[in-house]
Amino acid sequence: MKIDVPSYISELPTKEYWKSVYPNEKWRSRIAYLVALKVYRRTIVSEQQNHRCCYCGIRTTEVQGFKYSATVEHIIPKSQGGPDDLDNYALACYKCNNDRGDKPLEQYLRERDQRVITASLKVKLLQELREAGYKITNTTTCHSSANKLQRKLDAIEVKKVVAAGEPNKYEEGTRKHKMYVRFTNNGFEDQRPMKEAA
Q: Residue 173: which region, alpha, beta or left (left: phi > 0; alpha: psi -120 to 50)?
């Protein structure tokens, strides 16, 4: 069943108009009216937010089916009793709206901030590894967690301390302390080799 509804509607749709568009098809006119009402709400919210996503700030597109397509986000999710009116609407791109799902707003923002912090930490750690002389490949960038990269940097530091013959200066129970003990007991050759710069 094909229903032609424009992707941008600036005036409140009426049932009478859609009945005139589909005069002998009651169900089609009703569905067209509901879709048009949804598009109208999205248009109003889009104009209020200057067509930008409330989470990531990307400029959204009216054409549906893309990750940056404009969608109506319920600030308080309907599944948690949020009302279905303009006061509870915000504009979000499809990607962010889908990512949030029905999580409470505070929880979603906390998780999103944590992902941003982890990503920036990962960039910083990769830069430090490059400076330490290790070859960084696309595989390292894509599949390494920030924690794994930090372990590599810790291993570099501890190996330098052991090679210099310095005593174990790390607090007992910490990762660096355990590395020091392992490196001094087993030597470097038993450790899994790390990729050296070419």
A: left
Find out whether 162 and 180 touch, Cβ atoms under 8 Å: yes
Q: At a CB cut-off of 8 Å and minimum separation 6, what does 124 contact?
A: none
CA separation for the pair 77, 131 (Å, rounded): 46
Q: Is the pTM of this model over 0.90?
A: no
The answer for residues whose C-beta is within 8 angstroms of residue 153's C-beta and 6 or more apart is 125, 128, 129, 132
Question: Can you give the pLDDT at residue 194?
Answer: 47
What values do phi and psi take at 74, rounded to 5?
Answer: -85, 120
Q: Which domains does the chain have, with CATH numbers?
A: 15-102 (1.10.30), 106-190 (no CATH)
Spell out the residues 6+ positions from residue 184 whose beta carbon is closer than 8 angstroms to its own: 162, 168
Three-class secondary structure assignment of 87-153: HHEEEEEHHHHHHHCCCCHHHHHHHHHHHHHHHHHHHHHHHHHHHCCCCCCHHHHHHCCHHHHHHHH
**Segment 52-87, tens digit of pLDDT:** 998 888 898 877 788 888 888 888 888 888 887 888
Q: How many residues does the chain have?
A: 198
